[in-house]
Specification:
By secondary structure, the chain is an alpha/beta fold. 29% of the residues lie in helices and 28% in strands. The protein has ten helices and 15 strands.
């Protein structure tokens, strides 16, 4: 079968197409014929690290959907031909997070990912594709959508009447925007692109701020909310945005901490959290249980993921370049 491996040459990381043997499922496992995968910012970080770390031979990408084509013994919940999508953490099925789950993240330091024609996974690591979604759409869900759901809904309790700040228009941001719109929450979107803001408005964004034109976007947000601030903030930027997020979180609000997109740097001043009785919710994706609940919500609300562009298997480097450019709106997908 065909797959991609991360390999390093002279200290530089490379994505290499390879031919490898097709895996066979064992007890409690199923084999999936992967039809589509999608990229996340984490995949850029993993590729960049591959040149200096022991990732040679690793199959990248955490996100993918496909068809069950072989089943091992003692598997009752899946059948040949079922449409399934893999959970980001292979071993986190339900319950509280454990640090031991980190090593089971697909496409990471120790576990192969989805950029391959076939993959074998535990039956417990799979979720049925919502009936109204294509496999291309389903492939966008495991990381970005589950992250937004886990942080904003499962732990953040976002509901009608709340106010969400969304930073940018990448995968997590747009899923957060769509969830807010479906729940009846007001969504504030910041971006450096008026074109992207216009598209975000069509998805339910009600207050739109171009942060290039308005660098003090936190001040603009407070003014637009009559000094109340945002009850929920998807903190995707890292040190470059964190202090402003702290300055515009509402009393009793929640900052859902996800991203490091502007790099690692000085630690923000967290004192305002205490005075406003606000919280920071640290989120790294979610469990199969989170994924299943989110899938039911997507079905009930007839929500379709936003797909930016679709690339063929031979064009994987172009897909990575598209994500790295920051020009995307929504998810970048690769079909196999």
């Amino acid at each position: 079968m065909k797959a991609y491996h991360l390999n390093s040459h002279a200290g530089a990381a490379r994505l290499e197409p390879v031919e490898v043997g097709r895996p066979e499922p064992g007890e409690g496992e199923v084999r999936i014929r992967v039809e589509a995968t999608s990229l996340n910012y984490r995949d850029l970080i993993t590729l960049d690290r591959a040149g200096q770390s022991g990732l040679n031979g690793r199959v990248p990408l955490s996100d993918g959907a496909g068809i069950v084509d072989a089943i091992g013994s003692n598997v009752a919940q899946w059948h040949i031909g079922d449409r399934v999508v893999a959970s980001f953490f292979r071993d986190w099925v339900s319950g509280p997070f454990k640090s031991s789950y980190v090593s089971s993240s697909l496409g990471g330091n120790t576990t192969d990912g989805m950029l391959t024609e076939y993959i074998v996974l535990p039956a417990t690591a799979l979720v049925a594709v919502p009936a109204h979604l294509s496999l291309v759409e389903a492939a966008t869900l495991p990381c970005a959508a589950v992250t937004a759901w886990h942080g904003l809904v499962a732990r953040g309790g976002m509901r009608r009447g709340d106010t969400l700040l969304v930073q940018g228009t990448g995968g997590v941001a747009l899923f957060g925007l769509q969830f807010a719109a479906a729940l009846g929450a007001r969504a504030i979107v910041i971006s450096s692109s008026d074109e992207k803001l216009a598209r975000a408005k069509a998805l339910g964004g009600s207050i739109l701020i171009n942060y290039r034109d308005t660098p003090d976007w936190d001040v603009a947000l407070m003014k637009a909310t009559d000094g109340k601030g945002a009850s929920h903030i998807l903190e995707l930027g890292g040190p470059g945005t964190y202090d402003r997020s702290l300055r515009c979180v509402a009393s009793g609000g929640k900052i859902v901490q996800i991203g490091v997109l502007t790099g690692f740097g000085p630690k923000p001043d967290l004192a305002r959290l205490q005075w406003e009785n606000a919280d920071i919710i640290g989120v790294t994706v979610g469990s199969v249980e989170h994924f299943t609940a989110m899938s039911s919500f997507l079905t009930e609300q007839a929500i379709h993921p936003i797909v930016d562009r679709i690339y063929g298997f031979e064009d994987v480097p172009d897909a990575y370049a598209r994500l790295r450019s920051g020009a995307h709106f929504g998810k970048v997908v690769v079909t196999l």
